[in-house]
Design a protein that fits this description.
The complex is a heterodimer of chains A (112) and B (113). Chain A has no helices and 11 strands. In chain A, the strands form 2 sheets. In chain A, strands 2, 4, 5, 9, 10 and 11 form a 6-stranded mixed β-sheet that branches. In chain A, strands 1-3-8-7-6 form a 5-stranded antiparallel β-sheet, with no helix packed on it. With 113 residues, chain B is mainly beta. Chain B is 0% helix and 56% strand. The chains are: A mainly beta (112), B mainly beta (113).
């Protein structure tokens, strides 16, 4: 079993839909939870991160962490075709020697 | 004014050859990383350097040797290339105490024939 599990999709939604992307994990030492977006043939770019539990909002994006369930989510409101990309969750413990553990990514397609 | 750059972008080579990939960052970060992304998009850390010192060395064949001439550069040399080395290799950088905020380069797509 991988430390971080993520449904690879593909997930196809109509423009304007609310998208929910999720990851589960097994390592209770993880304290940093990140979401990266990767467009086709590009490098991943950091969207947002949270530390420990709770919610964080940035424009149309909301990240949620539920440490009791070892479950994290990224919600995208009013999805746009430009949101079509692969979304990777990543996690790290504090003082973990700089190592991020990534999920396999969920491919999202937002259609007109 | 690219933040993290890699060369070459594409690399096609024969099995058994030796090749290098170069990475440079102009963000003033002191930590740099090499990742391998396989065909299923799984991104896995290979190495991490902090201020020219190796701090992460995952289970990677010793045919892969990173080298950091200074804190703005991290190169990856691969000896005796194998078919299974075909992947996209990403360089990334961060501040040492903000390792959760890593900035990635555009990737080098390596194809071994």
């Amino acid at each position: 079993q991988k430390e971080v599990e993520q449904d690879p999709g593909p997930l196809s939604v109509p423009e304007g839909a609310i998208v929910s992307l999720n990851c589960t994990y097994s390592n209770s030492a993880f304290q940093y939870f990140m979401w990266y977006r990767q467009y086709s043939r590009k490098g991943p770019e950091l969207l947002m991160y949270t530390y420990s539990s709770g919610n964080k909002e940035d424009g149309r994006f909301t990240a949620q962490v539920d440490k009791s369930s070892k479950y994290i989510s990224l919600f995208i409101r009013d999805s746009q075709p430009s949101d079509s990309a692969t979304y990777l969750c990543a996690m790290a413990p504090t003082g973990g020697g700089n190592k991020l553990t990534f999920g396999t990514g969920t491919q999202l397609k937002v259609e007109l | 004014d690219t933040a993290v750059s890699q060369t070459p972008k594409y690399l096609v080579t024969q099995m058994g050859n030796d090749k290098s990939i170069k990475c440079e960052q102009n963000l003033g970060h002191d930590t740099m990383y090499w990742y391998k992304q396989d065909s299923k998009k799984f991104l896995k850390i290979m190495f991490s350097y902090n201020n020219k010192e190796l701090i992460i060395n995952e289970t990677v064949p010793n045919r892969f040797s990173p080298k950091s001439p200074d804190k703005a550069h991290l190169n990856l040399h691969i000896n005796s290339l194998e078919l299974g080395d075909s992947a996209v290799y990403f360089c990334a950088s961060s501040q040492v105490d903000r390792y959760n905020e890593q900035f990635f380069g555009p990737g080098t797509r390596l194809t071994v024939l």
